[in-house]
Amino acid sequence: MSQPAASILIVDDEPQNRKLLETLLRPEGYLTQCAANGEAALIAIQQHMPDLILLDVMMPGMDGYQVAEAVKANPCTSHIPIIMVTALIERGARLRGLNSGAEEFLTKPIDRAELWLRVRNLLRLKAYSDFLQNHSAILEQEVQARTARLQQFRSAMDATADAILLASRSALRFVEVNATACDMFGYSRDELMQLGPIELAEATHTAAAELLDFMVSGAETTEFREVVLRRKDGSEFKVEMSRTAHRTGDDWLIVGVLRDVTERDAAQQRLHQLAHYDTLTGLPNRTLFYQTLESSLALAADSAIRVAVMCVDLDQFKNLNDTLGHALGDELLRQFSTRLVKCVRVRDSIGRLGGDEFALIVEMRDGQDCATQVASQIRDFLRTPFDLKGHQFAVTASIGISLFPDDASNSDELMKYADTAMYRAKRAGRDTFRFFTAQMNDEILARLELETALRNALENKEFTLHYQPKVRLDNGRIAGLEALLRWQRPGVGLVLPKQFIPVLEETGLIVRVGAWVISEVCEQIGRWARASIEPVSVSVNVSDRQFLEGDLESLVTRSILANGISPELLELELTEGSMITNTERTISCLKVLKSQGVQISIDDFGTGYSSLAYLRRFPIDTLKIDIAFIRDITSNPDAATIVRAIMQMAHSLKLEVVAEGVETEAQLAVLRSQGCDYIQGYYYSRPLAMPEIETLLREDRRLPMPVGQPASPPKTLLLVDDEALTLAAIQLALHQEGYHILTAQSAAQGFELLALNEVHVILCDQRMPNMNGTEFLNRVMELYPDTLRIVLSGYIEIETILRAINCGAIYRFYTKPLDNRILRNNIREAFRHHGLLRARAGAQPTDLRQSEGVTTH
Q: Which of 658, 576, 642, 641 lies closest to 610, judged by CA?
């Protein structure tokens, strides 16, 4: 008849831990019940007494120790074995558990095999203990049953991974051992049964006496002890041993359970090595280095010795690592650490703090020159190139030095100051060393203060926006604004961007602040619309970190929808550097925003990675020429040539050009002569706060036009379409362009307007009653040959269109529906072309087919 499955009570306040233990025990066939706290566990034990308890140590209310004490204090439950499950591995925690009555420990995270073995062993020992308690009765009643059970017990003992030895206290000889014990000591079972605990102890009288005392001491005490034992071949090894004592008539039966801890100790040694030493170089890591520094400072304070702390950092290591690959980069660090060790004395210390950063502790018994000599020696050792798989590479290092007790008296400050000095050495040109100075500390403190103030600035609503107008040169009107961030710092006043934007970039705060700027600009555009101020586009500078770390696409979309504004009124300005940072992600984001109508411009063009390839791949509308070129445009031929080339390239790519930083009338004159589209700068207006910019927008103040030119250059556009809604939509799309727009709903009205006005460009619908568009434009070509004629149609009547093209009646042909941006760009191009043709021909009739091909969209 099979034995009933053992019942195990799992006590743990964490549901996932209870579930895990149940899952691990289920394959072994054990019956499990659970309790979420100590009180519930005691109730469960009274209702259904388990064979074994898995008990968590840390629980609210009654902890594991209290539960164990309560179980062992009850005579009815004291025989139940307890395994404590804990993340605590200190000796004190184990001793307290043993004092509470626990027989075994399991350390979190739980190892499945160890759980099975420990549960199985304790259950077998419990079975054997139960057997021993009834030993006398069993002997009297059934000798055969005793033999069978003893054999069963031996089989159970042989199955365990721990060595089990049963010894008579009076005879000091083993009365039973399991197979594991035989394997552990190298004896056969018969040989081991002829021995006792003393013969297994290490070959010292003291050790043997301690082991004997442990084996035969009080029956009521259970504890773990580590002892060194001896195998048959004479080799010694360490075991963890526990023992229990049971009264058997006039004698005591001592049950010892032994576990070989050789592998455990080796694993602990490996963990210590990993925890305190760098795996790549073998040097002490940051943790051990700081411990060594603390000890060195304590010793130096007692001995009145000065100590130098040195931070050593390889110059340009990241670039070298990216170029060579991480494998060769690691080899370089190993070779560098070997050279570094040769630079210090035996009493000095060295460690790798991480990456390419190393640190040294140098005792200075002979003054500050000792640190200088070590720093110089490090630089000298680096003069010889490193051999990396047959390739020679020269490397330099920057070194920062702080002194104890001169600069600081504790390790944290000394390391911080040495690190500060090291970065100062890098800024000084690298391949050098610097001692820490109070001035460096003041600069660091000022920087930290600035960072802290910036972190609070957004929450305290200290940021504000100023707006600088962008003006069209062909009509002098404001065509847009650029939003510029300002910081109204308490106790300081208005802080300009150059003083805090770099810090926002370095700390990553630019992502949150940039999001605030976009949201604020969209809200302001909406407020202007509700205040009946004529719509004007606003550009916002976008950092490359906003593409990498922020959800720019969602932010812009939400801000536009939340404020009900037209996407075309928002323009994002990014630098050329942003174009090469995570390019594919940036392009994808910009294309989505561009498809919604958001305008895209490149700021400070010409100062970064100017590339036609990037201009072709990115959905760009505008180039902004950097102020560095504009500043010298009247006196430096090279600057003037670069500006001219940028504008010609931009116009050929159908891009508009904005000149930034225009401050003089001479600069304006040169830009106007070169065909620049917009200017921005102090010549027209400095950045203005909200009340001033709103006044400027309401007054519609215009840029003065050159002497001899009309204030409003006549750019007259005739729209001919029989649908009033279409005419209104086109007028709305072009309302900011500054054209003089005439509208006609029939060919007859168109002819009348042509007779009364000088018209330069005509946009005509193809399908109209009485006279279609191509017929109308054919007559216009004969009557007004200087006009540029464009036909717009939702239907392609190919033969009619071709005839009109061939006879020169049509300058462009577009199909409906037409994107507003494309429409604006092409109308601008038409007026630009018209001006070129008139200048070339002296206002004489011109055959357009000789100078311009026909484009269809």
A: 576
